[in-house]
Amino acid sequence: MAGIFLLNQDVVAVILLHLPAKSLTRFKLVCKQWLSIISAQQFCHLHTLRHPKPLPSLILRTHTSHCFYFNPVSSSHKLVPYTITVPNSKILNSCSGLLLLQSVHPDPVEYHVYNSTTKQSRTISLTLSEDFKKIMGLTLAFDPSKSPHYKIVCVRAKMKPPSARERHCQIEVFNFQSFTWRV
């Protein structure tokens, strides 16, 4: 009987691999078995490799913090209201369906990697640096065909005295696997 269950689980996984990501988020609610299959890191990676080019779409944020989703391939050509589940945030960058968000109100500032399909986010903490305090730029890098893990690149500068002509910078890379920053 256990062999039949495993065979059925494999068949279900193969079928689910053919479905669009948006459908999979709903199918996680069908049963615990499907949730387990769809949530597995290996399944996510295989699904991304099978669907390397997502349909063009965009998330538009207005000056009033309202968001709208637009998919020019769809037949409706309408802006659909969209909610980002990280409150009080602004979009810094996007890459392969992921958004890099910055919370604007809490102190200290928080950064989040947000999956616009699943509406799940992960908080990323910046390391404190005595020498390099000023953040010059923060960007997201993700190529699912190379790795299932994203990286964040942060460029920091030393606070320069008003008389200094040059600025010294440091580049740090956040590794999702180890959840650490590396200079």
Summarize the structure.
With 183 residues, this protein is of the alpha+beta class.
Task: Describe the protein.
The chain has 183 residues and is of the alpha+beta class. It contains four helices and eleven strands; from the N terminus they run H-H-H-H-E-E-E-E-E-E-E-E-E-E-E. Strands 4-5-6-7 form a four-stranded antiparallel β-sheet, with no helix packed on it. A four-stranded antiparallel β-sheet has the order 8-9-10-11, with no helix packed on it. Strand 10 and strand 11 form a beta hairpin. Helix 1 crosses helix 3. The chain is elongated and about 70 Å long. The N and C termini lie far apart (52 Å). The N terminus is likely disordered.
Question: What tags apply to this protein structure?
Answer:
183 residues, 11 strands, single chain, four-stranded antiparallel sheet
Return Rg in Å: 20 Å
Structural class: alpha+beta
The main sheet orders its strands as: 4-5-6-7
**What is the general shape?**
elongated
Tally of extended strands?
Answer: 11
**Counting H and I runs of at least 4 residues, what is the number of helices?**
4
Helix content: 10-25%
Averaged pLDDT: 75
What's the main sheet like? 4 strands, antiparallel
Strand content: 25-35%
What is the terminal separation in angstroms? 52 Å
Order of helices and strands: HHHHEEEEEEEEEEE
